[in-house]
Design goal:
The chain is 27% helix and 24% strand. By secondary structure, it is an alpha+beta fold. The protein folds into 2 domains: 73 residues, no CATH class; 162 residues, Superoxide dismutase, copper/zinc binding domain (Immunoglobulin-like). Strands 1, 2, 3, 4, 5, 6, 7, 8 and 9 form a 9-stranded antiparallel beta sheet that branches. Helix 1 crosses helix 3. The chain is globular. The structure holds copper (II) ion and zinc ion.
Length: 241
């Protein structure tokens, strides 16, 4: 295992540790709330937050990512995507119509999500597929993040909902012109969008913090990394050692 890989493993452990704690806490809070608020009327709140865990395909198995969708009160949807483990460069990101990543090359996800039957385009163009999200820029350390608002995609149940559709990252940037899909090449990452109650901070730990932890772990050998216990990992993540 190379050091970058070891760093990734430590990061994954750190992330899963913090999310476990958070989930347990959330469960407690939910149970308390249920006890307090038992009433005859069963009020159901429609979920407004969804996410997709992106996995790398055959030729990009080392990569991973997360997409986050949150519908605001005015019906616009905030979108965040973070990827890790890709070579530096720009990559097209789209919502594709079918939430099916079962193919090795992710062809199972179908074409771009296009409920208005428009042509392919840039994320800020009037003529575009609802699923056209633009390009994500990945830095030298393999990390990249993008954020945008969409007035076409929704989270709540509707013809425009992203839930049960697929987020796809392509091997090349989107040229925003070529039809039907921006000449972005093959599909290298895929994830199915699902409703979630996990909070944004858990899914998107501060990017600078992620970079800092990675840098710290780079100075350690594989053996040293394996000897670290939970407390030391925690310290490492806070930079106290
Ligand atoms: Cu695509
Ligand atoms: Zn498109």
């Amino acid at each position: 295992m190379g050091r970058a890989v070891v760093g990734g493993v430590v990061l994954a452990v750190l992330l899963s540790l913090s999310s476990c704690k958070k989930e347990a806490k959330e469960k407690e809070m939910v149970e308390e709330t249920v006890k307090e608020e038992e009433s005859p009327t069963d009020v159901k709140v429609e979920p407004t937050v969804a996410y997709a865990f992106l996995m790398g395909g055959e030729n990009s198995a080392q990569s991973s990512g997360i997409a986050w969708f949150e519908e605001a009160d005015d019906g616009k949807t905030r979108i965040r995507v973070r990827v890790d483990g890709l070579p530096a460069g720009e990559y097209a990101v789209h919502v594709h119509e079918r939430g099916d990543c079962s193919d090795d090359n992710f062809e199972s996800a179908g074409g771009h999500f296009n409920p208005d039957n428009k042509k392919h385009g840039a994320p800020d163009a009037e003529e575009r597929h609802a699923g056209d999200l633009g390009n994500i820029k990945v830095e030298e350390d393999g990390l990249g993040e993008m954020e945008l608002w969409s007035d076409k995609l929704r989270v709540k149940v509707s013809d425009y909902s992203v839930v049960n559709r697929a987020v796809i990252v392509h091997e090349k940037p989107d040229d925003f012109k070529s039809q039907p899909s921006g000449n972005a090449g093959s599909r290298i990452m895929c994830g199915v969008v699902k409703y979630t109650t996990v909070d944004e901070e858990t899914l998107f730990p501060d990017l600078e913090e992620v970079r800092r932890v990675r840098k710290l772990s780079e100075g350690l050998s594989e053996e040293e990394m394996e000897k670290l216990d939970e407390e030391q990992l925690d310290e490492l993540s806070r930079g106290v050692h």
